[in-house]
Write a structure and sequence with these properties.
elongated; Zinc Finger, Delta Prime, domain 3; binds zinc ion; alpha/beta; Rossmann fold; 3 domains
Length: about 325
Amino acid sequence: MNSFEDFRGQSAHLEQLRNDFAQGQNVHAYLFSGPRGTGKKSVARLCAMTAMCRGEHKPCGVCGPCRRMAAGTHPDLHEIVPEKGKQSISVDVVRGVIEEVGVQSFEGGVKALLCQQAEKMTPQAQNCLLKTLEEAPQGTVFFLITDQPGALLPTIVSRCRTVRFHPLDFEAAKARLMALGETEQNAAVKARMSEGCVGQALEIDAAKMELRRQVTQDVFSVRNAADIMPVLGQYKDDKEKQKQTLDILETALRDMMLAKSAGRTLERGMYAPQAEDYAALVPLSGCIALSAAVLKAKKMCASNVAFASALEMILLKVSEEYARWPW
Ligand SMILES: [Zn+2]
């Protein structure tokens, strides 16, 4: 189980939350907002654990309620999650969980209701929840968790205390990932790939990292027009790979532009060596031009232009930039 300390740097209010819950001074509804992977759900569980803890230094982690919370088996923790395969949270789901919460606390203490991806609640579901928030049942605390607070009804937001969560800066994210057992090299790559959202970094698997290396190798190997066709052939059919290809290139170019404007070289090992070569040979203007081509390609794909045409346009630009700045 995590501790509040593990999320240092992701929210300015962790200490306050811990104290409020330990002393029973918490409000009854919280809105945790921030990008995916910044610790919102884990911190909500920690708050609930703190409220339910029977130990002295809450959360003690060893008392019965703490252990049941850590194992996810505490009967007074209720969760609203989108149903499998469904894009929204229906009013029936919300009503069902609220009825559950309405009954007496199993352990005689605080009850917690955690709603993940709260933005997925339909307007009816939100209105149903709103009624409950307005007449909050005694001893119940609500956590609404979202990366899109704008999708919630203003009436809901105004009933909650909003706590914002943020990505970590690069060094802090890297250190956290190393503390979680990543090698230094992988921690650095994942910290960059996730832009400091540690939870997202933990989802990055070897296949994703390999695709990133592969894409940057393929694209930045195109030194002249004759190199284009073989690369196009490799990206023909796989729709998911096509989408990721453009995202990977967008990120790679952003990193190149950041490095160049700071007078640095592209960090070793983040992308294929061919990408490092491109960044070393082509000036900032060439990175900007290529970045514009990638954005244009994204727009083309969004309006149903064939991926091959979009990629070809990018590859042509790569070869042109190499030609313009002879190595
Ligand atoms: Zn405890």
